[in-house]
Amino acid sequence: MITLKQIEKYYTLKGAKSYVLRHIDADIQKGEFVSIMGPSGAGKSTLLNIIGMLDEPTYGSYKFMDQELSSLSERKRIEIYRNHIGFVFQAYHLIDEMTVEENIEVPLHYKNISSSERKSRVADLLDRFQMVAKKDLFPHQLSGGQQQLVGIARALAPQPLLILADEPTGNLQSAQALQIMDLFRQLNKDEGITIVQVTHSEANAAYGNRILNLVDGVVTNNS
Amino acid sequence: MFRLNLKIALRNLWKNKGYTFINIAGLSVGMAGCILIYIFISYQLSFDQQYANKDRIYRVVSYWKYSDGEEFQNGVPRPLAYAMRNDFSQLEEVAPLQRGGGVVQVMDEAGRVKMKTDETVFYTDPSFFKIFDVKWLAGTPEQSVTEPNTVAISRKTAIRYFGDWQQAIGKSIVFKQVNQLKVSGVFEDQPETSSNPIQILLAYSGFKHRQLKEWGSVSSGTECYVLLKEGMKPADLAGTMQAFIKKYYSDDSDVKQEHFFQPLSEIHVDERYGNFAGKTTSMREIYGLAAIGLLLLLTACINFINLATAQAIGRSKEVGIRKVIGGNRKELLTQFFTETITLSFFALLLACVITEAVLPALSGLFKDELNFSLVNQPALIVFMFALVLFVGLLAGVYPAVVLSGFNPVLALKNKVNVGNSGGGSLRKVLVVMQFAITVVLIAGTVVIVQQMKYMREKSLGFNSSAIAMAYLPNDSISVTKFDIIKARVAALPGVTSVSLCSVGPSSSDNRTSNFSYNSTKDMDFMVNTKAGDEDYFKTFGLSMLAGRPLAKSDTLKELVINETLMRKLNIVKPEDAVGQYITVLGEKVPIVGVVKDFINKSLKEGVSPIVLYNAKNSMSELAVKMDTRQISTLMPQIEAIWNSYYPNYVYSSSFLDDHIRAYYESEVIMGTLLKIFAGVIIFIAFMGLFGLISFVATQKTKELAIRKVLGATTLELVNMLNSSFIKLILLANLVAWPVTYILVSRWLSGYAYRIDLNLWPFMVAMVISLLITVLTVSLRTYQAAMANPVNALKNE
Q1: Which chain A residues touch B408 with a CB distance below 8 Å?
Q2: Which is deepest, B90, B116, B154, B322, by most CB within 10 Å?
Q3: B 384-423 residues with CB below 8 A of A?
Q4: Size of interface A-B (CB pairs under 8 A)
Q5: Interval A110-140: pLDDT, tens
Q6: Matching CATH number, A33-56+71-211, of 1.25.40.10, 2.40.50.140, 2.40.30.40, 3.40.50.300
Q7: What is the spatial distance between Cα B381 and Cα B751, in angstroms, rounded to a whole number?
Q8: How far apart are CA B189 and CA B200, in angstroms?
Q9: ipTM value
């Protein structure tokens, strides 16, 4: 599904290149649950952002579903991205001015899905995450774990093939963290959604079937 | 999507109540100003537009070119209309419109006079109504304005005379004591927006004048309207006009005379020619107001842009999220425009309330009937929605582009820095622009106020205070009573001096005449002629440079000339002028004195060359100078004496001071408007600055805290923030000064007598703008600087 070849990312500061990522080669198959691990500043989030098309590599080739991304137009890339990728963040990043229901609905608006279809998908997700009673609350009225559930529901709304999670449990208490990780495993197992997560925690990494270790921008271990 | 966007827009506006309030307050005041200006301008442009043939109706006007100037006149020679009817095949209709006036007596059933009024009447013929489609309630133009012994009146006049217009037909009125006229038609009242305020209409065949066949005399009371044939343009008539002028005017004169076809739509907006309604609003004023409206809107939009970009940091997270979950730039732009347009819409609602509240005052200022009615003015609705869209898009485009352009990764980390990137410098440019506009307006207002004060205090060369001017009828019988009336008024205790004259030293009623000096050929300029008796000089306090004032006389026997005429005749010493002969008004008479120049028109114009002479049949006013304290008791006594000699005429009087003040009415209006709009723009700029500094203070909380920890005092912090803004305001002043200088010099050049432009207005504008800035910035930053630094730093 994802093929990275010789991905490099660097910034030029006063003539000197400062590397964030070097010679990254990786393959991620459909249905995998991959964890990217490594110390702070290793380039984990940058790699995730490149996979998520929020950032572009300075050099190298990135194929998503056998399409070379650098050869695609901006419009086409957004098209792929909208239809196939969902993001989950450490800090949830819900829109403060929107209710739970509206937050989940936003990506569907961007996909130009009909009103009735939107309503039914949002209702399904609310039901599945047992948030029906909370649908009219605003993010600041929810606990962290609940906000992250909304975040995941929002990522799932467009029915993506790939979910990218950047330290999804980093801000959560352990009980809630467990709940979220169980949910990820379930999504991976039952629905075949490919998941790539960035994490610090060995325990969380254990939920996945593969670990990509990153130190100073270089993959040291791909098991 | 739109509904969701709207909902989010409303929530966002509600969340930032302070920002919303500042934006809406500034915008609505700016919009209200625009709506008011729109109403005023559309009212001015609606003049004479109610006729079906409006695009084919033209007025014939006159133009003269002299060796040292030119003259524009709404009037035409009296025989012109009928000559044109014969000579121009391109014209469908030609109609004369002659103004006249006199006392109208309305009789009751028993034949007694039940009402006596002084009225303006118009003479025309039925073709006038083929040009202008006026609705007739009773009778027809053919019945009413063909025969000399009939009269048609407007509905309002009919009600005034007879109580009910249905009863007017067949009744009689007496015009000018002798003409018994039968009412044979009643027509609908003409709207306020008409340049021909016709109330009483007589047949042109009944108009008598000794110069009825004279091509050399033009009065502003004689107009001529034409209806061009379908498909004709005034340019198509140029050739015929050439031949026409050649046919009727001798070409051996130095003066070149021409006639133009003036479109109906220009009659109200071309102040060079007058009109019968006496109301014009020049296109210059209309453009000026439109420019002020645009400036108002611009300042309000600048506020909007400033506040929105400053606030962008707070919105960066939302933008980041929307981009991450699939929103593209277009969708984000739509969202931000939804917000700005929603905000403009609210501002419009408030602007409507402000407009409604302010309109009566504006109507009063312009002495016009303006109204704010959406039902009757569908164009206004279109204008208002265009305004909302314009403001929403203009004010929204920059913030929307900036916000939607954020990199999502940086935006989510709150790392976009609007303050130091392009947004910050744009904001500075906008603040400079806004304050430059403010400075131009303040300085401009100060100059206008100074010029007005100068004109009020400028010595006119004569004394105008406490002088009443009473009208005198000057038919041959009335003239015989002049001396006795003068003597009786002069004998009243409290009356200092009385003079019979044609007009006061300064008047808008100026009669000019050609004349010759030391030659049989006329000079190439005209002189202003004023009649005054032996007491004229004493009554108005005119001072002589040489010779003596006019002596008592009943007919033209001698002249006093003014300094300007003396110089134009190339006489150096006033003494040399005395004893010279001038031929004017058909007589060759000696100059007996030279009077020191006095302002004979408004201060906008220079002094005309003038001759003063004493001749009873030219007198039409009685000037009475009195003790200021006794004015109120003297006026009724003068009226009583007057009425005892002229029972059949209607008394009217006015004060010379009021008359002079009337010259400057448009300056007073302009001054008042500028003061108001300068105030409004200062207010808007102040709001904008306040909003902006609020964001800067929030943004700099951390910096202030660190500086405080390092030992800065509150005052030092306030000063630090002030200094950056003060630099901007000083820059704004530098930008504004040359612009102001150019604009103000151009305005002042319209006045023959004007103040010397000095530094004061510029200084005042600078001080006011600086004061506002320091006050606003200090007020807002003091709070931020006073905060406990620990709280600010803890957040990191």
Answers
A1: 54
A2: B322
A3: 408-409, 412
A4: 55
A5: 788 888 999 999 999 999 888 999 999 999 8
A6: 3.40.50.300
A7: 40
A8: 11
A9: 0.74
